[in-house]
Amino acid sequence: MTRFTTKSFALLTCLSLLGMSCKQKTDKKETTKNEQEVVTNTTAEETTEIQPLITHIYTADPSAHVFDGKIYIYPSHDYESGIPENDYGAHFNMKDYHVFSMDNIDGKVTDHGKVLDVEDVKWAKRQMWAPDAAEKDGKYYLYFPAKDEKDIFRIGVATSDSPAGPFKPEEKPIEGGISIDPAVFKDSDGSYYMYVGGIWGGQLQNWRTGTYNTDFNSPYDNEPEDDEPAIAPRVAKLSDDMLQFAEELKEIEIVDKEGNPILAGDHDRRFFEAAWVHKYNGKYYFSYSTGDTHNIAYAVGDSPYGPFTYQSVILKPVLGWTNHHSIVEIDGKWYIFFHDSSLSGGKTHLRNVKVSELEYNEDGTIKAIDALVEAEK
Ligand code: FUB
User: Fold this and answer.
1) Does residue 116 carry a pLDDT above 90?
2) Section 304-311 average pLDDT
3) Catalytic residue among 49, 78, 273, 374
4) CATH superfamily placement of domain 6-376
5) pLDDT surpassing 90 at residue 48
6) Which ligand 1 atom is nearest residue 323's CA?
7) Active site includes 273?
8) pLDDT attached to residue 49
9) Calpha distance 208→303 (Å, rounded)
10) Which of 160, 167, 233, 338 could form a disulfide with 142 if both were Cys (CB 3.0 to 4.6 A apart)?
11) Per-domain residue ranges for the chain?
12) Ligand 1 centroid to 61 CA: how many Å?
């Protein structure tokens, strides 16, 4: 896989990063969504960067799939809406989706244009965040979160006869579909599962009692104490028609190697948002963002419902506050699609999609990637 820049490109890119210097190693301090502190400690000559896949518009949260022998990417479509940044993520004010495809991993990227607009979704008001897509029996399903008229995130679905859209939205959101970042996993037996959830701006903390709690003044108010189990992401099997849940959303346990739940105070390992599941050698790999510690981490289990045992970090912090990914097998190799903010010079809400090969060790563990220091290959 050769999507790497030359060292001179890296130098130029690095010099354009709004006062940030190039770095060998990112050292991000724990921050709120309003701030990002990047500490640099080496020179540009030592770095190369993975190139953005898409440069004519801003894209983020890439969910990649192989449909009909082609690679399709379903990302968020970032743009400058002028909404000021806050800890609820108001600045991520996206209003539509584009779909992209590639004939192969080194091929050119085709933009299939706008495939769904918030204006066309009756129940949705704003903030079309990270989507995903699935195929069943020749039909394609685009799953997406958006805020309804009460400013509560719901999960919607839209359908198409083509993986490239356009997608026609259902009249109502999926019943029981809450929070953000839907990710659909097709198991080997043909069952489909949806994973959802995100804390803080993703609102999962407000659903702790089962109904949405509006009695809070900050995104942190409803979080558990540090020594309590962290808020759990959710999963449900999809119905045969792919338009509803076949069961209630269940909480997913993420545990350490001793079987103890990862605690809310363990910001380096606890679930924040951006769930993704893939299967490798018969094991289920649940990967996710740790949010304010900016990692993509993973945990492994024997069932799509978990429990999942925490392993380690797959993708270290990237330039920009958010970190969000998908993992897909293409022609016998594994790839991680992710985003950073290099194209916009580090702006949190203006991101761009990238891809890198993902490698496993013999024991099935995944080798960590530091996208900021990928050496030229
Ligand atoms: O793109 C908006 C939000 O930022 C996503 O839903 C999160 O996963 C984070 O990437």
Assistant:
1) yes
2) 98
3) 273
4) Glycosyl hydrolase domain; family 43 (2.115.10.20)
5) no
6) 10
7) yes
8) 77
9) 24
10) 167
11) 6-376
12) 6
